[in-house]
């Protein structure tokens, strides 16, 4: 499980004295545990996140880091952007490799054909179905651009 892998990697980084990695893994583990605790009232007191749910948490955290990097660069804080990039690389180690456009294209076309979408007005419906299929393997912005392009928007 990803949750257990995070804990094992945290122990290794602490022993190695890697402060950046240790801090990042602590925060990542904290986010996963927060989500787990939030779901316990619905799913039971001893509920543990499935890997797919943990990947969603990690993916969201990575997206927040990307947004922070962009904001820091716009604000002229290159030092903070570099720090965030280093932590983002650590976070991305736990995410599946992103899908290429060649892999994503057929999935988008298949979903469009299945739901009969013909205009950009139906983009939300297509996006929802595509994201459900690709999970954390594709960036939402990349999917959005491809869906918009295929629907002629």
Radius of gyration: 18 Å
According to CATH, what is the topology of the largest domain?
Answer: Hypothetical Protein Yqey, Chain: A, domain1
**Proportion of residues in extended strands:** under 5%
Q: For the terminal residues, how far apart are their CA atoms? A: 40 Å
Low-confidence stretches: none
Number of helices: 7
CATH architect. name of the largest domain:
Orthogonal Bundle
List the domain count as a whole number: 2
CATH superfamily of the largest domain: Uncharacterised protein YqeY/AIM41, N-terminal domain
Helix content range of the residues, please? over 70%
Major sheet: none
Structure class: mainly alpha
Strand tally is 0
Average of the residue pLDDT scores: 89
Describe the structure.
76% of the residues lie in helices and 0% in strands. It is mainly alpha-helical and 153 residues long. It has two domains: 2-92, Uncharacterised protein YqeY/AIM41, N-terminal domain (Hypothetical Protein Yqey, Chain: A, domain1); 101-150, Arc Repressor Mutant, subunit A. It has seven helices and no strands. Helix 2 packs across helix 3, helix 5 packs across helix 6 (123-134) and helix 5 crosses helix 7. The model has no long low-confidence stretch (mean pLDDT 89). The N and C termini lie far apart (40 Å).
């Amino acid at each position: 499980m990803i949750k257990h892998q995070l804990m094992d990697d945290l122990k290794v980084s602490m022993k190695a004295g890697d402060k950046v990695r240790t801090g990042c893994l602590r925060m990542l583990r904290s986010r996963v545990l927060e989500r787990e605790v939030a779901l316990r009232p619905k799913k039971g007191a001893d509920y543990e996140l499935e890997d797919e749910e943990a990947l969603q948490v990690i993916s969201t955290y990575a997206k927040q880091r990307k947004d922070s990097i962009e904001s820091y660069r716009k604000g002229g804080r290159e030092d903070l952007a570099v720090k965030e990039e280093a932590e983002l690389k650590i976070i991305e180690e736990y995410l599946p490799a992103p899908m290429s456009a060649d892999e994503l294209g057929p999935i988008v076309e298949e979903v469009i054909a299945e739901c009969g979408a013909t205009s950009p007005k139906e983009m939300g419906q297509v996006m929802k179905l595509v994201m459900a299929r690709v999970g954390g393997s594709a960036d939402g912005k990349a999917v959005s651009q491809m869906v918009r392009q295929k629907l002629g928007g």
